[in-house]
């Protein structure tokens, strides 16, 4: 296997970014560990800081100041994803909200790129970050060709932690509010589908208080 093939495999593994962040290139005083919880928000008005998600799920929300019911969840970010873009659309702004507890590394954007550009994988990491954004955008757009029931099941499979061939544990805090914002429907519609899924035992709460999703077996 040649260098380019190995390089491609490494970059497709998002832990390569974490390994660089945790290396000696980034001194402890450059990185600040922060914990955010449900109800907190990260708003990047000028994009001065970069956040690397170490634990938890964060919803990328396009917020409408005049009508909270029209908020759009553009993507769900997870471990090793970056929060670093700045976006402004008319009376809207982008905010990042944790579904429950999330742990992040925070660093000044200028320092981050000054250090990272000395690393041989610098260009590849930037490309992979852009590819990840495109992947999330494609997932968001693709869902609208399906019925709401199927869109919700696809979201559960996308975000769930697989514990067996057919079973997934859903992230804490993934409620009707975020599902509706992602699927572009009302919470009433989402709650109706969730009730139907509970009735047929496709989702159920475990003894630990988290929801388990059971994937349909393919015929």
Automatic annotation (TrEMBL):
One of the protein's GO biological processes? regulation of DNA-templated transcription
Q: MF terms per GO, please?
A: DNA binding
Domain HTH crp-type, first and last residues per copy? 173-208
Kindly give the Gene3D superfamilies that the UniProt entry links to this protein. Answer: Jelly Rolls
* Key word Transcription present: yes
Which residues belong to the signal peptide in this entry? Answer: none
Write down the Pfam families for this protein, in alphabetical order.
HTH_Crp_2 (PF13545)
Would I find DNA-binding among this entry's keywords? Answer: yes
Tell me which domain of life the UniProt entry assigns to the organism this sequence originates from: Bacteria
- What keywords tag this UniProt record? Activator, DNA-binding, Transcription, Transcription regulation
- Tell me the protein's name: Crp/Fnr family transcriptional regulator
Supply the source organism for this entry. Listeria booriae
């Amino acid at each position: 296997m040649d260098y380019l093939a190995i390089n491609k495999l490494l970059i497709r593994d998002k832990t390569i970014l974490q390994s660089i962040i945790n290396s000696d290139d980034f001194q402890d005083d450059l990185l600040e560990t922060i914990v955010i919880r449900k109800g907190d928000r990260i708003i990047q008005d000028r994009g001065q800081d970069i956040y690397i998600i170490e634990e938890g799920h964060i919803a990328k929300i396009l917020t409408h100041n005049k009508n909270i019911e029209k908020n759009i969840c553009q993507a769900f970010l997870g471990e090793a994803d970056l929060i670093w873009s700045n976006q402004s659309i008319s009376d809207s702004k982008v905010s990042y909200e944790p579904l429950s507890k999330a742990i992040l590394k925070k660093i000044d954007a200028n320092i981050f790129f000054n250090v990272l550009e000395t690393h041989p994988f610098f260009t590849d990491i930037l490309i992979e970050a852009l590819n990840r954004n495109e992947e999330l955008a494609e997932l968001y757009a693709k869902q609208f060709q399906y019925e709401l029931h199927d869109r919700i099941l696809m979201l559960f499979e996308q975000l769930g932690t697989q514990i067996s061939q057919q079973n997934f544990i859903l992230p804490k805090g993934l409620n009707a509010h975020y599902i509706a914002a992602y699927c572009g429907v009302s919470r009433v519609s989402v709650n109706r589908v969730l009730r139907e899924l509970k009735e047929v035992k496709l989702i159920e709460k475990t003894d630990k208080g988290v929801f388990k999703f059971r994937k349909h077996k393919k015929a």
